[in-house]
Design a protein that fits this description.
The complex is a heterodimer of chains A (187) and B (871).
Chain A (H helix, E strand, L loop, with lengths): L1 H6 L4 E4 L7 H9 L6 E6 L3 H9 L4 E5 L3 H17 L6 E4 L2 E4 L4 E4 L2 E2 L4 H12 L4 E3 H9 L7 H15 L9 E4 L3 E4 L1
Parallel strand pairs in A: 1-2, 2-3
Antiparallel strand pairs in A: 4-5, 5-6, 6-7, 8-10, 9-10
Helix pairs in contact in A: 5-6, 5-7
Chain B lengths: L3 H13 L3 E6 L6 H14 L4 E5 L6 H7 L3 E2 L3 E5 L2 E5 L2 H7 L3 E4 L15 H10 L3 E7 L7 H8 L9 H5 L3 E5 L3 H9 L6 H9 L4 H30 L10 E5 L6 H15 L2 E8 L8 H16 L3 E6 L3 H11 L4 E5 L5 H7 L2 H8 L4 E5 L20 H20 L6 H18 L2 H18 L13 H49 L3 H16 L3 E5 L6 E5 L8 H13 L3 E2 L11 E7 L2 E8 L9 H67 L5 H31 L6 E5 H12 L8 E3 L6 E5 H18 L7 E7 L2 E7 L28 H11 L3 E6 L4 E8 L6
Helix pairs in contact in B: 2-3, 11-12, 13-15, 16-17, 16-18, 17-18, 17-19, 18-19, 19-20, 19-22, 20-22, 22-23, 23-26, 24-25, 25-26
The chains are: A alpha+beta (187), B alpha/beta (871).
């Protein structure tokens, strides 16, 4: 904690399974005074901890064991977001998929994709956090409202439909990744 | 049946039993068997598995035709007095275990040598084995109606069915035809052979008889329907709607009317839908109860229990006071008693229990049943001649001689009263040790000798002074009263001491049972105490497979044969007493009482009672309390053991998983660094080829080790009480992730055959994904990197199905189940945990995982039950 205060790093990697202190507690304390990007590290099977950490302010997570390449990619995404967070992009583009937030239109390889209200909201939310994981609770809260936090069935149905519309063709590119037990990530 | 608890119990016991349907008729020939067979045919047409258990051979063509097409159990042939009898084969029926069995003639008595003495007990066993039964019975065979039927027809029926059994029937169907039609059928020879018709028409089948029987049958059925309705209504009602219903108390006196009074009370109770209690009051004043009357009383109590009454033995000085006290405590509304059968003068002189009961009953109704002679001849199993004791008469003679000798010593013509006192002492001394007969005789002889030897004129029986007449009378009266008093005192001392003995023995038993912890010790203590109290060899059995185990034997030794063992087994299977002195398997040498705990039978108590084949009520109560105490103690011991085991298990389980997760975590963190470092090394281009190869090996092996650790962790998770983190998941998502995660292991990633529509299941997503990963890893390991692995998802019969198939060598035949065992490994790599985790995880979800050889290749199939989607 002191180290973070003194050195003022660009990013913090936090192991949730610290032997002497609860990782979540560290995160809560950090968030009291800094918005530095935090990536939590934990093992598979500790999905609840990950969700708690993400909901508690962490930016992303990595499951141990992970490769260096994976780690570097996550760090880059996290750093990019800190730069971009201030400016509100009116336009999003990723590998042939374009979203115009102003007119609320989505085109895929220049063909317009017809999305329902919910599907558009879902896609917009994930695109805003492109490369980062968005927890299931966060999605439910922001798309449906706080009262729907436990209707994961509905979420799965709509997500399935959205994917069908976006991931078309012979060998479709995966655009939305399911992080089992945690949430979704736009890649 | 107003008690909700009793009703619940009733319903529970009905639920576990098969269904019983009874075709009830007023007499033979109304078409009960016909009705039963029609029902059998109908059920059979509905594809129910119907078997005819037994059909009474009436030789009626129409009926026999109906039996065609139904499977019939071959009857058991018994040789009885050189005649072979065809009987219902209970064991064959139990072994065949059909859904529905038809058994004719519910009231039939089985010949000697059968397991049960009555057919209704056979049927009880069938119901117990969850076989549905349809049977037939005539109204005169119902226990509580026996007297009424006897009054109407003059025939006293020997074969009866207890009301309690009849009441448990789920359905009663009355087969009713008008008497005229029955007469017609008789005349046509449809019921009996022509030669018997005339006799039947004049006898049992008289029109008046049939009318009365028909009314009885109709009324009984109506009552039954009414009861069903009330019960249904009661179950619909909220519990606060309950109120104390009618309760009838029948007072069972030791006389020949006892049985009749009990039956009458049952009829009253049935028509009022009242609960019935039967009591006897043991009183020291009832000194002269003959063994015959005692037998009547005990039989009546047994009958009352059979009729569904609660039997209670009271003891006290004042019969009436005890009776009323008990009635008030139990909220009884009506007391039923028999009319006194003593001579009129006795009643005036000593009063009668009936009169005083009526006088002191307060707001309780008293019903008095008429005292017509009972027509039943109870079977006396204990003819006990009055013992005449020469010893007693010796004492009489000695007392007279001593008193007379002393009289001569103190003779003084003026004070004859001293001598009278002397004789009185003699009379009291005799009365203290002997019966009424001896003491009165002593008094009479004493008076004669006193008159002869001392009253002037001496040595004659003449009396000059008339006042001596009065002296004699007073002396006679005093000796009578004194002997009566001492007799009663002695009786009650004896009663008290015997009761005290058994009470203190029971107390001692319960104390030592409470102190002991081991089952064997408890059983041994109980066997010893029971043997002491009942003065017979005793033993305790406990349930164990394949045959019961004798764990304790009393000092006198209990002989054990295969036959006795089989009886013990039966008792433990059925939770009902059997053996000597009971109606079931009465050929056994010993009486077997089940030790029934709250969760079923724990064992049996065996008592080799002395040869007089009967047990009186107090003995039965004693046996019952011994067995109840032992059952309670055994159950407690079992609970304590289970609790300890569970606590120990939980503790060690907790320790193990704590250790494992700590170790795994500590291993995983350095592994992550090793792998990270190896990867970094590989990205440096200046490394030699050899070093690069080494770095690759480090990377691969550290990844492998990470997987092993993950497997170990997963195993600890699924082995303990798995806490599933259930949530709705899309199967396709999980499979896609799993395929992606295993892509590095295969040259070409597994192909996914997508379902036609999205399949959503409520599962622990992380765990299920791991299961699919494990299956894919398994395929990659056994079918090599080049294998083509295919994952398919579909819905089949409300189950979500996932199959993972490869084109590898498959597994060895016969290994389909083995491969899911822990630490079962076929190759050289791996712990053999992967598939064990899959199995445990899928089973925790209520699903199923199976493996089959495809030739070539292996296929794993997961089936998961699907839930309804929420709104």
């Amino acid at each position: 904690m002191q180290l973070v205060a003194h050195k003022n790093p660009d990013i913090v990697l936090l192991d949730l399974g610290l032997p002497d202190m609860d990782g979540l507690e560290v995160l809560t304390k950090l968030r009291e005074w800094t918005q530095v990007p935090v990536i939590v590290l934990s093992a598979r099977g500790q999905e609840r901890d990950k969700v708690a950490a993400l909901d508690g302010g962490a930016d992303d997570y990595l499951t141990k064991p992970f490769s260096v390449g994976e780690l570097m990619a996550r760090v880059r995404v996290a750093l990019r977001h800190t730069v971009k967070a201030s400016e509100d992009e009116p336009f999003f583009e990723s590998d042939g998929l374009q979203i115009d937030f102003a007119s609320r239109t989505v085109t895929l390889n220049n063909d317009e994709v017809r999305l329902t209200q919910i599907e558009y909201k879902l896609l917009a939310l994930l695109a805003h956090h492109s490369g980062k994981v968005v927890t299931q609770n966060q999605i439910l809260r922001e798309v449906w409202g706080a009262a729907y936090e436990d209707s994961s069935h509905t979420l799965r149905v709509h997500m399935g439909n959205l994917r069908q519309k976006l991931e078309t063709g012979e060998n479709p590119k995966r655009r939305i990744r399911t992080e089992t037990g945690v949430g979704y990530r736009f890649i | 049946m107003n008690d909700p608890l009793a009703q619940m119990k009733d319903e529970q016991s009905r639920e576990r039993r098969g269904r019983l349907k009874v075709y009830l008729g007023m007499a033979a020939g109304v078409g009960k068997t016909y009705g039963m067979l029609v029902e059998g045919q109908q059920q059979s047409a509905r594809h129910t598995d119907v078997v005819i258990g037994y059909l009474e051979p009436h030789g009626r063509a129409e009926t026999e035709a109906l039996a065609n097409g139904l499977e019939m159990l071959p009857p058991k042939i018994l040789e009885h007095r050189n005649v072979s009898i065809k009987e219902f084969d209970l064991d064959a029926a139990l072994a065949r275990k059909p859904e529905l069995i038809l058994v004719d003639e519910l009231a039939h008595s089985n010949p000697e040598g059968s397991r049960h003495s009555k057919r209704w007990q056979d049927i009880e066993e069938l119901l117990h084995a969850q076989i549905n039964v349809v049977t037939t019975v005539n109204i005169q065979h119902i226990e509580s109606l026996r007297d009424v039927v006897a009054q109407i027809t003059g025939v006293f029926v020997q074969e009866t069915v207890p009301d309690a059994f009849f009441d448990l029937a789920n359905e009663i169907e009355l087969v009713d035809i008008p008497p005229e039609q029955l007469h017609q059928r008789l005349k046509e020879g449809k019921v009996y052979g022509q030669e018997k018709v005339d006799q039947a028409l004049k006898g049992f089948f008289k029109r008046s008889n049939l009318l009365a029987l028909r009314e009885l049958a109709l009324r009984h059925t109506a009552e039954q329907v009414d009861k069903d309705l009330r019960e249904t209504r009661a179950t619909l009602k909220k519990p606060e709607g309950w109120h104390a219903g009618e309760r009838i108390l029948v007072c069972v006196a030791p006389n020949r009317m006892a049985l009749r009074v009990v039956r009458a009370a049952k009829r009253l109770a049935a028509s009022l839908h009242a609960e019935m209690l039967a009591v006897t009051v043991e009183s020291s004043r009832q000194r002269a109860v003959s063994p015959e009357n005692r037998e009547y009383q005990e039989q009546a109590m047994v009958l009352a229990e059979k009729l569904g009454a609660k039997a209670v033995n009271l003891a006290g000085d004042d019969i009436v006071a005890e009776l009323i006290k008990f009635a008030q405590r139990e909220n009884v509304n009506t007391i039923v008693m028999g009319k006194p059968i003593r001579q009129r003068w006795k009643e005036i002189a000593f009063g009668s229990v009936v009169d005083s009961t009526i006088r002191s009953s307060g707001d309780i109704d008293v019903m008095v049943i008429t005292g017509a002679e009972s027509q039943g001849t109870p079977i006396f199993r204990r003819p006990k001649p009055e013992k005449s004791s020469w010893y007693g008469w010796g004492e009489v003679a000695a007392a007279i001689v001593i008193c007379t000798a002393l009289g001569f010593l103190i003779y003084d013509s003026e004070h004859l009263s001293n001598i009278i006192m002397l004789y009185l002492v003699g009379v009291v001394a005799v009365a203290l040790r002997n019966g009424l007969r001896e003491s009165i005789s002593t008094a009479v002889i004493a008076i004669c000798i006193f008159d002869f030897c001392f009253v002037p004129p001496r040595y004659t029986f003449n009396i000059t002074d008339g006042r001596y007449m009065l002296t004699f009378l007073v002396m006679l009266a005093v000796s009578g009263i004194l002997s009566g008093l001492t007799l009663r005192l002695r009786e009650s001392t004896r009663a008290v001491s015997s009761r005290e003995r058994s009470t203190s023995a029971l107390y001692e038993l319960s104390k030592s049972l409470a102190e002991s912890r081991k089952k064997e010790e408890m059983a041994k203590l109980t066997a010893q105490k029971a043997s002491e109290l009942l003065n017979c060899p005793a033993a305790v059995f406990v349930i164990s497979t394949p045959s019961p185990q004798l764990i304790a034997n009393s000092a006198t030794g209990f002989e054990l044969s295969a036959n006795e063992m089989a009886v013990a087994q039966w008792v433990m299977d059925h939770g009902q007493p059997a053996g000597a002195t009971t109606d079931t398997l009465s050929g056994a040498k010993a009486l077997y009482v089940p030790l029934n705990g709250s969760n079923g039978t724990l064992g049996a108590l065996a008592l080799e009672l002395p040869t007089e084949k009967t047990t009186d009520l107090s003995q039965r109560l004693l046996i019952e309390s011994i067995s109840t105490q032992l059952a309670g103690a055994l159950e407690r011991a079992q609970f304590a053991k289970e609790f300890n085991d569970a606590a120990l298990h939980a503790e060690s389980e907790q320790m193990r998983s704590n250790l494992l997760s700590a170790v795994s975590h500590d291993l995983r963190t350095p592994l992550a660094s090793i792998e990270g470092s190896a990867t970094s090394l590989l990205t440096h281009s200046e490394l030699s080829l050899q070093s690069k190869e080494l770095a690759t090996t480090i990377q691969e092996q550290s990844q492998r080790m990470a997987r092993l650790i993950q497997n170990l962790l997963d195993m600890t998770r699924v082995q303990g009480a798995i806490q599933l983190d259930l949530d709705w998941q899309s199967l396709e998502d999980l499979v896609t992730n799993a395929v992606e995660r295993t892509a590095p292991l295969l040259d070409s990633p597994a192909t996914i055959v997508k379902p036609e529509q999205q399949i959503l299941v409520r599962v622990d997503g992380v765990l299920l994904e791991q299961v699919i990963v494990n299956l894919l890893e398994n395929a990659a390991r056994h079918a090599e990197r080049t294998a083509h692995v295919k994952v398919q998802m579909f819905i089949h019969q409300k189950n979500a199905v996932i199959t993972v198939s490869d084109n590898g060598p498959g597994f060895l035949p016969g290994q389909e189940l083995k491969i899911f065992e822990r630490f079962h490994r076929t190759g050289t790599s791996g712990f053999g945990l992967g598939l064990a985790i899959c199995k445990a995880a899928i089973e925790a979800h209520g699903g199923k995982i199976t493996a089959t050889n495809l030739n070539p290749g292996a296929q794993f199939k997961i089936e998961l039950p699907m839930e309804e989607a929420p709104e």
